[in-house]
Automatic annotation (TrEMBL):
Source taxonomy: Bacteria, Pseudomonadati, Spirochaetota, Spirochaetia, Leptospirales
GO MF term (any one): S-methyl-5-thioribose-1-phosphate isomerase activity
Protein name as annotated: Methylthioribose-1-phosphate isomerase
Record's catalysed reaction(s): 5-(methylsulfanyl)-alpha-D-ribose 1-phosphate = 5-(methylsulfanyl)-D-ribulose 1-phosphate
Alphabetic keyword roster: Amino-acid biosynthesis, Isomerase, Methionine biosynthesis
Catalytic site: D238
Sites where the protein binds substrate: R49, G50, A51, R89, Q197, N248, K249
């Protein structure tokens, strides 16, 4: 069950129902998706986002493909379905893992109806497991905070909450777990330019639950750490290499350096599905480059006579160029600890803790 009062991802009688996160915080609109192509568009265009949520959605997407077919399925056709879905967003490893497991599960199955049943049930299983893992991760995260303190000031980046997962969240999950343990948590949410996951989504989630939250622009964290006591920075991740280098939303790297400069512990919240142990370092993590327009323009949603519409505006001269890497890689040396569903540990313990 999601920590929110509604489910951002649900499966209703063979239809994938997704909250369109692009319209938050002003409008809660649900997309009814019945095809794999529709699912790929929803992922690519950010109606759904956040590494775990993308993985769950992707598996429902391939189930939709199988649902629309009958008769026998060749291994080539199955490979091609998995490949198409994998291309939707490249940086987070969760979807790649989930698709690999989806492929293994149907190795002995050769008709589309049975493949549909396997993938449908796998997607539901992923949701349940992700929620269970987030809750365990949250409990371990609480142990890193001084039990004698009553109030914690925490900076977070992007959105890692119930909107990005099957519920509870990873970095926001630790915040929720601290609150559930009776602590007062004051959250500073980086707005997260250019897609504003922090100001639109994290602030929305915190307000829904009455957790005190202040939006800061991405450049304010140095000032904040220099002028107020900050207990920790908590972020999520999209892919962690074997040495602990971590890809996460663009701006995470800057935040980690500022935290190091102020001796504020920088924690990365990750479930096992975030670790890509085939990669020795973060240098080969693929970084998704998105459209320049996400940086040079903004879209705001305006309510006129009850109608919601999107009005594009410019934040830069017409014709100005922009770079828009959607993620960056934080070197392991800036990460004090990973917080996972099986405990907390520094980067050098990754190979041992993941038993590979
Ligand atoms: O581009 P997004 O919004 O999908 O990026 C999301 C993030 O970077 C999150 O921090 C990450 O996926 C972890 S969500 C638990």
């Amino acid at each position: 069950m999601s920590s929110l009062s509604f489910s951002p991802i649900s499966w209703e009688n063979g239809t994938l129902v997704l909250l369109d996160q692009r319209l938050l915080p002003l409008k809660k609109t649900f997309l009814q998706i019945t095809t794999m192509e529709g699912t790929i568009s929803a992922i690519r265009d950010m109606a759904v986002r956040g590494a775990p949520a993308i993985a769950i959605t992707g598996i429902f997407g391939i189930a939709l493909f199988a649902k629309g077919r009958s008769g026998s399925a060749s291994s080539g056709e199955i490979e091609s379905v998995l490949h198409s879905m994998k291309q939707s967003r490249p940086t987070a490893v969760n979807l790649t893992y989930a698709l690999a497991q989806a492929g293994e599960k149907v190795q002995e199955v050769n008709n589309w109806h049975d493949i549909f049943l396997v993938w449908e049930s796998f997607a539901k299983e992923l949701m349940l497991n992700d929620l269970r893992d987030n809750e365990a991760l949250g409990r371990h995260g609480v142990d890193l905070f001084d039990p004698n303190e009553e109030t914690f000031h925490i900076i977070t980046h992007c959105n890692t909450g119930a909107l990005a997962t099957a519920g509870h969240g990873t970095a926001l999950g630790v915040i929720r777990s601290l609150r559930d343990a009776g602590k007062k948590v004051i959250v500073y949410a980086d707005e997260t330019r250019p897609f504003l996951q922090g100001s639109r989504l994290t602030a929305f989630e915190m307000m829904e639950e009455g957790i005190e939250c202040y939006i800061i622009t991405d450049g304010m964290s140095g000032w904040l750490m220099g002028s107020r006591k900050i207990d920790a920075v908590l972020v999520g991740c999209d892919r962690v290499a074997r040495n602990g280098d971590t890809a996460n939303k663009i701006g995470t790297y800057n935040l980690a350096i500022v935290a190091e400069a102020h001796n504020v512990p920088f924690y990365v919240c990750a479930t096992k599905d975030s670790f890509d142990l085939k990669l020795e370092t973060g240098a080969s993590i693929p970084i998704e480059m998105r459209k320049e327009e996400e940086v040079t323009r903004y879209d705001f949603i305006k309510d006129v006579s009850g109608n919601i519409f999107i009005q594009p505006g410019m934040t830069s001269p017409v014709g100005a160029r922009a770079l828009n890497p959607s993620f960056d890689v934080t070197p392991a040396k800036y990460i004090r600890s990973f917080i996972t569903e099986f405990g907390c540990f520094p980067p050098f313990e990754i190979p041992n803790r993941l038993k590979v």
